[in-house]
Amino acid sequence: MHQPHVRPIVRGKAGHETEFGAKLTVSLENGYARIERLSWNAYNEGGDLQMICERYRARTGHYPEAVLADKLFRNRANLRYCAEHGIRFSGTRLGRPAKIVNPEFLKLQLADNSARNAIEGKF
Predict the structure, then answer these.
(1) Is residue 93 assigned to a domain?
(2) Would you say residue 2 has pLDDT above 90?
(3) Average pLDDT over the chain, rounded to an integer
(4) Residue 51 CB contacts under 8 Å (≥ 6 apart), including other chains
(5) C-alpha angle 105-44-6 in degrees, rounded to nearest 5
């Protein structure tokens, strides 16, 4: 990759107001990382989920069984899309935490979080 100049991207994160470099959306399938989107401009990665799932369907002929993604991807549009296509979306639910939590749900959530470590390890 070559970029003759790098603009700061204002993110407003605690500790680091700006970031430098490209933003990247990456998926992981069978141990292989796939660059889904690379941009030198600021954008919200949460909008990429539906495109990624459709690309997966075009490659394999079916939607993924589950999506293990950051909280950034957990928005109402993505949750509705996953529900419509029978895709399990891992992670905590939107809104208030449940008063009574199903132990099987906790076990599945822990397994999903462990599986998500593989993509973090790619970086």
Answers:
(1) yes
(2) no
(3) 82
(4) 36, 37
(5) 130
113 φ/ψ angles, rounded to the nearest 5 degrees: -65, -40
Question: Is 106 within a domain?
Answer: yes
Q: How confident is the model at residue 1 (pLDDT cuts 50, 70, 90)?
A: low
Residue 2 in any domain: the answer is: no
**N-terminal to C-terminal alpha carbon distance within the chain:** 16
Give the residue from 70, 24, 67, 18 showing the smallest Cα distance to 43: 24
Handedness of CA 55, 58, 60, 64 (dihedral sign): positive
Q: How many CB atoms lie within 10 A of CB 48?
A: 19
pTM of the model: 0.74
Please, which pLDDT band fits residue 58 given cuts at 50, 70 and 90?
very high
- Report the pLDDT averaged over residues 20-35: 83
Query: Under DSSP, is residue 37 helix (H, G, I), strand (E, B) or coil?
Result: strand
Containing structural domain, residue 72:
8-121
**DSSP symbols for 40-86:** SS---GGGGHHHHHHHHHHHHSS--SEE---GGG--HHHHHHHHHTT
Q: What CA–CA distance (Å, rounded) separates 55 from 49?
A: 10
